[in-house]
């Protein structure tokens, strides 16, 4: 250990003021360390929560839909579903294709309890919804000759007072949109049994969508055997969704619209991007404030240790040695503060991850607890920035200390 490191470590451990203010300088040093720790911990927690929001909302949205949706540009059913699926499968990035038949219908529990819902016909319930079933089964093919299975959101179930086993009637208005048809045609309807209830905390989805078998939906909505509303595509990597959507539009030709998840839910992702852009910038001010605390603490140490600095200089220490001594001291303050901040952020993050201490209103944030997504890269990056700022803040006090004249301070100090 060099003498510069040894003296810097001694100053940090035994920093104290003059006889009249003994202990105050040590207090200021620990305040500087605490300021760095608080800034680092706050920044990391803010980054982790913002990343958690992004991941959680993306997971929820993909759980209902897909990375890319392919549909008709005229918002009419796609014909020749088998041929389109063959063309789509030629894209190497496409992992799975799910045909979907969906239309808005009327769900009737009684003459007083009627609500408009989006009937979603599919081969199987999305995996995300299976994982978030609060009761019942995810199987959509286990119906009877009289009733068909229906999986609904918990919010819709509460609105209509529905529980497992209840029977409801769904009326399709698809063939009644023409005024002439409204006078000549009876609405198509089908009896359903509530076989499953899911909850995702996305109120707009939980109140809106009801899932059933795709063949049942085709029959109710008067779709042909080769007609679908759209295809839901899952990709190897969601980040390439926009480029794949453009490629599919060019490949499938006119009349086909392919949209990425980022385009479909642009409002939600814009909200996430705004948080990611602003919150770290605002919270970073805390580290800057902490760096100024380090500067102030080191300047006070310089003022209190002028006599010792003069003695070191008279014993042969160069200005550069004294300057390095205070840079070491600033590094120690920043290092201790950063280490404490990293540990504090990790501990609080793990508590939130496992116990959900901080709750959120689901209607505003689409989740019941603050999400956490901690990345090692964030911890390393924040630690490096914190240490660099503390070293930068130490440079001015170090320059002041190196310019102290030894004869003057020894004679008059």
Explain what the structure shows:
The protein has helices at 3-14, 24-64, 81-89, 127-131, 154-160, 179-184, 203-206, 214-221, 241-252, 261-264, 266-304, 306-314, 319-355, 362-365, 376-402, 406-412, and strands at residues 68-72, 94-108, 114-122, 133-136, 147-153, 167-172, 188-198, 209-213, 230-235, 256-260. It has 413 residues and is an alpha+beta fold. The protein has a 6-stranded mixed β-barrel. Strand 2 and strand 3 (114-122) form a beta hairpin. The longest helix has 41 residues, at 24-64. The two termini are 29 Å apart. Mean pLDDT is 82; it is low at 17-21.
Write down the overall mean pLDDT. Answer: 82
Strand content: 15-25%
Strand order of the largest sheet: 2-3-8-5-7-6
C-alpha termini separation: 29 Å
Low-confidence stretches: 17-21
The succession of helices and strands, N to C, reads: HHEHEEHEEHEHEHEHEHEHHHHHHH
Class derived from helix and strand content: alpha+beta
Largest sheet: 6 strands, mixed, barrel
Number of helices: 16
Secondary structure: number of strands = 10
Question: Percent helix among the residues?
Answer: 55-70%
Radius of gyration: 33 Å
Shape verdict: elongated
Please outline what is shown here.
With about 425 residues, this protein is an alpha+beta fold.
Task: Annotate the secondary structure layout.
Elements (H helix, E strand, L loop, with lengths): L2 H12 L9 H41 L3 E5 L8 H9 L4 E15 L5 E9 L4 H5 L1 E4 L10 E7 H7 L6 E6 L6 H6 L3 E11 L4 H4 L2 E5 H8 L8 E6 L5 H12 L3 E5 H4 L1 H39 L1 H9 L4 H37 L6 H4 L10 H27 L3 H7 L1
Parallel strand pairs: 3-8, 5-7
Antiparallel strand pairs: 1-9, 1-10, 2-3, 2-6, 2-9, 4-7, 5-8, 6-7
Helix pairs in contact: 1-13, 2-11, 2-13, 2-15, 11-13, 11-15, 12-16, 13-15
């Amino acid at each position: 250990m060099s003498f510069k490191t040894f003296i810097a470590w001694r100053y940090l451990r035994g920093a104290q003021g003059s006889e009249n203010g003994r202990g105050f300088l040590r207090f200021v040093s620990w305040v500087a360390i605490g300021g760095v720790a608080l800034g680092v911990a706050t920044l990391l927690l803010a980054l982790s929560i913002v990343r958690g929001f992004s991941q959680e909302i993306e997971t929820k949205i993909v759980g209902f839909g897909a990375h890319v949706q392919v549909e008709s540009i005229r918002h009419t059913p796609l014909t020749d579903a088998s041929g389109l699926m063959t063309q789509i499968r030629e894209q190497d990035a496409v992992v799975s294709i799910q045909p979907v038949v969906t239309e808005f219908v009327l769900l009737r529990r009684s003459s007083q309890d009627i609500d408009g819902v989006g009937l979603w016909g599919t081969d199987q319930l999305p995996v995300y919804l299976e994982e978030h079933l609060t009761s019942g089964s995810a199987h959509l093919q286990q119906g009877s000759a009289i009733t068909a299975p229906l999986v609904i959101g918990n919010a819709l179930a509460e609105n209509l007072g529905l529980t497992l086993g209840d029977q409801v009637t769904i009326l399709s208005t698809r063939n009644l949109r023409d005024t002439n048809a409204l006078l000549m045609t009876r609405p198509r309807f089908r009896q359903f049994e509530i076989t499953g209830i899911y909850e995702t905390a996305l109120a707009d989805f939980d109140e809106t969508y009801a899932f059933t078998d795709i063949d049942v939906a085709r029959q109710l909505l008067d779709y042909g055997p080769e007609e679908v509303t759209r295809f839901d595509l899952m990709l190897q990597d969601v980040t390439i969704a926009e480029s794949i959507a453009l490629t599919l539009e060019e490949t499938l030709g006119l009349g086909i619209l392919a949209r990425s998840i980022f385009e479909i839910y642009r409002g939600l992702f814009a909200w996430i991007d705004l948080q990611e852009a602003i919150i770290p910038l605002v919270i970073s001010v805390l580290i800057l404030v902490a760096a100024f605390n380090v500067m102030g603490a080191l300047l006070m140490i310089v003022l209190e240790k002028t006599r010792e600095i003069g003695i070191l200089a008279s014993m042969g220490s160069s200005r550069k040695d004294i300057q390095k001594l205070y840079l070491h001291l600033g590094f120690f303050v920043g290092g201790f503060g950063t280490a404490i901040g990293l540990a504090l952020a990790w501990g609080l993050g793990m508590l939130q991850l496992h116990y959900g201490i901080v709750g959120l209103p689901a209607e505003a944030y689409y989740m019941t607890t603050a999400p956490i997504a901690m990345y090692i890269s964030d911890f390393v990056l924040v630690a490096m920035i914190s240490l660099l700022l503390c070293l930068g803040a130490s440079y001015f006090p170090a320059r002041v200390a190196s310019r102290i004249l030894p004869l003057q301070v020894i004679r008059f100090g």
